[in-house]
Specification:
CATH superfamily of the largest domain: Translation initiation factor eif-2b, domain 2
Number of helices: 11
CATH class of the largest domain: Alpha Beta
CATH architecture of the largest domain: 3-Layer(aba) Sandwich
Strand content: 15-25%
Structural class: alpha/beta
Bound molecules: 5-S-methyl-1-O-phosphono-5-thio-D-ribulose
CATH topology of the largest domain: Rossmann fold
Length: about 350
């Protein structure tokens, strides 16, 4: 495979996933902001490991990485015919799917790769063509993600007032996508439209995506950013220092309930109490119409060590019992608008999510 991802529109300054000449390069997000290390991948099992260990994280970025992983798995398949290829390709995709359970973009991307392969295999395409086609499909998913984020930015920017102080939680930025970001993409688009916007970034315990990643990428783009500990958000809201909240999503159920990084629900409750708009920016690939409500969204529980340690340093007594749910669910009634690449939805989610996903 020798194709590369060439799409790089103006304003997309940080791209965490690069692909050229059959090699995937991803910035190691575990080491940011202190070290900028790029890791190289050519094997699907290694890509799966990178997703589990959070070298790459963020719902859309996980989907893009998995698509390249699937293309690598396909490349290494020795098959005599399309049916044999599909059997082996299913196993590759199952391995990649068993990495992280909450972000539906992972399953969406793998389903798209499998549908592409199945359609072409049943049309009688030779195995070598299936492999090349899957590489192009992964490149398309990568490029589309950036375009989608730019579109979300266009639809979301009008919701951010000039002079707004915007609180965000976790990292829904360039690093969580192929580039530009979802929630941070909306902020970038508002800034590009000439608005003066400042960001308050929750640190986002325990993995510190806000402190390590959001603060890093916004500062790099010269966007005014203040870092706070998660438990300071309520105080700032009570003092009138936050004008709106914008976050990303890992999965949105058919009724508009939103799974996102642990702590998002708390922020949404606080926003409601203080009459502050709470916006969610997410691509259509994050909407899961198969789940009627948020209680059905699988919530990943991660290693206790993320809570008991920072790096190698212990923070808690040995053997203390720990919970580490990585996500929570914000009920639709707390969400002022869901911003997608096809427009912003205001409240009537059960009908509008179905309609917008169908392209109407
Ligand atoms: O555990 P992570 O870092 O993968 O969680 C990421 C988030 O919760 C993001 O807010 C979400 O994926 C949206 S990213 C555009």
């Amino acid at each position: 495979m020798s194709h590369s991802c060439v799409f790089a529109p103006t304003g997309v300054t940080i791209k965490p996933i690069l692909y050229a000449d059959g090699v995937l390069k991803m910035i190691d997000q575990r080491l940011l902001p202190t070290e900028e290390v790029w890791l190289e991948y050519t094997d699907y099992r290694a890509v799966a490991e990178a997703i589990v260990t959070m070298v790459v994280r963020g719902a859309p970025a996980i989907g893009v990485a998995a698509a390249y992983g699937a293309a690598f798995g396909a490349r290494d398949i020795q098959a005599t015919d399309g049916a044999d290829f599909m059997r082996q390709f299913e196993a590759v995709c199952a391995h990649l799917a068993a990495t992280r359970p909450t972000a539906v973009n992972l399953f969406w991307a793998l389903k798209r790769m499998k549908s592409f392969a199945a359609a072409n295999a049943s049309a009688g395409q030779p195995v070598e063509n299936l492999k090349i086609g899957l590489e192009y499909e992964a490149l398309a998913i990568n490029d589309e993600d950036i375009r989608i984020n730019l579109a979300m930015g266009r639809h979301g920017a009008p919701l951010i007032p000039d002079g707004a102080r915007v609180l965000t939680h976790c990292n829904a930025g360039a690093l969580a996508t192929a580039g530009f970001g979802t929630a941070l993409g909306v902020i970038r688009a508002a800034v590009a439209a000439g608005k003066k916007v400042s960001v308050v970034a929750d640190e986002t315990r325990p993995f510190l995506q806000g402190a390590r990643l959001t603060a890093w990428e916004l500062s790099r783009d010269g966007i005014d950013t203040t870092l706070i500990c998660d438990n300071m958000a309520g105080y700032l809201m009570s003092k009138g220092e936050i004008d709106c909240v914008i976050v990303g999503a890992d999965r949105i159920a058919a009724n508009g309930d939103v799974a996102n990084k642990i702590g998002t629900y708390t922020v949404a409750i606080l926003a409601k109490e203080h009459n502050i708009p709470f916006y969610v920016a997410a691509p259509l690939s994050t909407i899961d119409l198969e789940l009627s409500d948020g209680s059905l969204i699988p919530i990943e529980e991660r290693d206790a060590r993320e809570v008991t340690h920072i790096g190698d340093k212990p923070l808690a007594p040995d053997n203390i019992r720990v919970r580490n749910p990585a996500f929570d669910v914000t009920p639709a009634r707390l969400v002022t608008a869901i911003i997608t690449e096809r427009g912003a939805l205001l409240g009537n989610y059960s009908e509008d999510l179905r309609r917008i996903k169908a392209g109407a």
